[in-house]
Amino acid sequence: MKLYDTEHAPNPRRVRIFLAEKGITVPRQNVDLIGREHFSDDFAAINPFRQVPVLELDDGTRLTESAAICRYFEELHPEPPLFGTTPLERAQVEMWSRRIDFLLFTAIAQAFRHASRGMAVLENLQIAEWAEVNRDRALSFLRTLEGELHGEPFLVGGRFSMADISGLVALDFLRAARLQVPEELTRVRQWHAGLAARPSAVP
User: Fold this and answer.
1) What is the pLDDT of residue 159?
2) Same domain for 124 and 194?
3) Residues pairing with 62 in the sheet
4) CATH code where residue 33 lies
5) Residue 8 has pLDDT above 90, yes or no
6) Is the predicted pLDDT of residue 1 greater than 90, yes or no?
7) Structural domain boundaries enclosing 155
8) pLDDT at 120 over 80
9) Which long-range contacts (C-beta less than 8 Å, at least 24 apart) are formed by 106-111?
10) What is the rounded CA–CA span in Å between residue 117 and residue 115?
């Protein structure tokens, strides 16, 4: 088993946090994104979508989405549970994970990709106005999230879950898009601080 990984991208970090919470160690192979290694023919043979992470199993089977990789390890190692323990909790973890992915993380990623000079080599056309639109979308989601948090340390069921992992990684990714959680969003900031203090959160 081998995990194709990179240190400076958020989606592989989700898997690393998940594995750390589970106490699982998997051999890792770094993929140089800045050097465009993921666009090489060799890597395309591993993942035709040219993205990381990729989990390669001993029989050659490959999983290429961070959530799918985490779900696979959840089935193999159900303790501690990170996808919920009841039908309602599992649905809520899925709900929050999708909200964070589609409404926050995607907006941050678009703001980053269309405003960062370092991403010009990977983005065929950078559109500054699109970066601004997505910064506004990210901040709008955070303001809505503020109203949904009630001082609890975790999003679902009083326990750390995959939804919290996605939230932590997305909030840490704000810096790349030249954003931060506004000072007045005290509940979001408190939630983030608690997640960032976990040993698994080390980048």
Assistant:
1) 96
2) yes
3) 56
4) 3.40.30.10
5) no
6) yes
7) 87-201
8) no
9) 106/134, 107/134, 107/135, 107/137, 107/138, 107/141, 108/134, 108/138, 108/170, 108/173, 108/174, 108/176, 108/177, 108/179, 109/10, 109/173, 109/177, 110/134, 111/135, 111/138, 111/177, 111/178, 111/179
10) 6
In this structure, is residue 82 part of a structural domain? no
pLDDT, average across residues 32-38:
86
- Token reading at 176: 């790349």
Place of tokens 């503020």: 146
- Counting Cα atoms < 13 Å in the Cβ hemisphere of 110 gives 19
Supply the CATH number for residue 162's domain.
1.20.1050.10
**What's the start-to-end Cα distance of the chain, in Å?**
22
State yes or no: pLDDT of 121 exceeds 70.
no
Task: Give CA–CA dist 8/24, Å, rounded.
Answer: 21
> Over 70: is that where the pLDDT of 16 sits?
yes
Supply 39's token pair: 């666009």
Indicate whether 54 and 103 sit together in one domain.
no
Asked, for residue 187, whether it belongs to a domain, the answer is yes
Burial profile 171-195: b = 16 or more Cβ within 10 angstroms, e = fewer: bbbbebbebebeeebeebbebbebb
Nearest-angstrom CA–CA distance, 76 and 70: 10
* 72 and 92 within one domain: no
In the chain, the number of structural domains is: 2
pTM of structure: 0.94
Residue-averaged pLDDT of the chain:
95
Number of DSSP helices (H) and strands (E) in the chain, helices first: 8, 4
Tokens of 6: 């990179």
What confidence score (pLDDT) does residue 19 get?
Answer: 98
